[in-house]
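Task 17 of the worksheet. Students: predict the tertiary structure of the chain below and write it out as structure tokens. Keep your answer in the requested format; marks are given for formatting as well as content.
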Amino acid sequence: MNENSNEEVLTDESKAFSYGLNIIEKSEPLVAEYIRGELGNQRNQLKLIASENYASPAVLLAMGNWFSDKYAEGTPGHRFYAGCEFVDKVETLASEHAKDLFDARYAYVQPHSGIDANLVAFWSLLAYRVEVPFLEAHGSKHVNDLTENDWAVLRKAFGDQRMIGMSLDAGGHLTHGFRPNISGKLFDQRSYGVDPETERVDYDAIRSLAQDFRPLIIVAGYSAHPRKIDFAKMREIADDVDAVLMVDMAHFAGLVAGKVFTGDFDPIPHAHIVTSTTHKSLRGPRGGIVLSNEEDLTEHIDKGCPMVLGGPLANVMAAKAVAFAEAKTESFRSYAQQVVDNANALAEGIKKRGGRLVTDGTDNHLVLVDVRSFGLTGRQAESALEESGVIVNRNSVPFDPNGAWYTSGIRLGTPALTSVGMNCDDMDHIAEIICSTLKATEPLTTSSGEMSKAKYDLSGSVQSENRTLCAELLGRNPLYPEVGLP
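Model answer:
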């Protein structure tokens, strides 16, 4: 309190967000209301979504400024629009921070999302391995120089390429060549899974698949696998079949940046090309990046716009620069280690209360719980936990009999709750909330008398008790304590 006033002294962050919302309110009050509502929800729920985090106020504020108004197709110093002096500067700054952070020779910070980063990578690899040799063989420097017949042959060659990636039920991602996604329409794809007994990556099986299928691209990376991947082994497999190794580290980029994943488990020294989102464990804005140590690839990656991207979002690149600068600090390294420590504590807490975990534990930021050990589907577990104040997402487990909609598992992640300061003791309390909720949840039957995969009944007393426990945990570890909104 100010000694000369009864008014509360507001932090700079409080002033910034308060004033911003007041200005928004003048144009469209409902938008301001919904923004406040979202903050309220996030402050009152235990966020265990493995792909979500809390960006710093500085990152959030870097996205709302005059950079939003500028078109800047091209690359720094080579734009198709005039007046890009400061866009050039902020993109270069973000790229330099990314290269330093990940010890990479090259960083492309324009992708708007993870799927865009992957599309840039795919088409860069197609240009490098398919288009360039074709042009050289036909004495052409550019695709526009090809005859209609030659262009038709090249287009067919693009569509004839093969890819392998981790299967969805083993923890892979739709953007790794699956039919509902554009990547599956671009490539002839085959999946590798995990060992049925250990539920871990089987490198011998991947090698055998690669030797038989002879893909152009081998994709490594995951969205729901709780163990590290040996990228040195993956590169050996790729080299053995003259394939390109692409790593999508969207989920664990923060663990690479924070030097928790090093050596054979750091993809940067081993992969030809690495893609990532900039949020999730990296704690930046929603967006993507592409990294590479292969000089022959950089000219193709730089053509991401106009190849698959529109004009870069300079305001988001500014926020990426802030996030990368934050991730270069010792405090971020401590944070990254705590993310993994918390995941291990959460895993152990669930195991000792009777839950079954895929791979029986975790090496990274996520825990995959097979909720069949509680007699539930993933959809039932997800909904019951939300009633208790815990936000997770349902997720397939290896060889899942319930498919991708109902699922047999839930995916838990510790990046967000670690960001608000929670520790291993807190994770054990959360494990108790999760397990007590699931044990108090009973599947209902359908009108035909079969066990429902969606409907359930949760004990009201358990739900109420657990919401109270969640509130206590959040009260001790508030979200954005420096941001007070009236």
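Marker's comment: The first strand starts at residue 46 and ends at 47. The radius of gyration is 24 Å.
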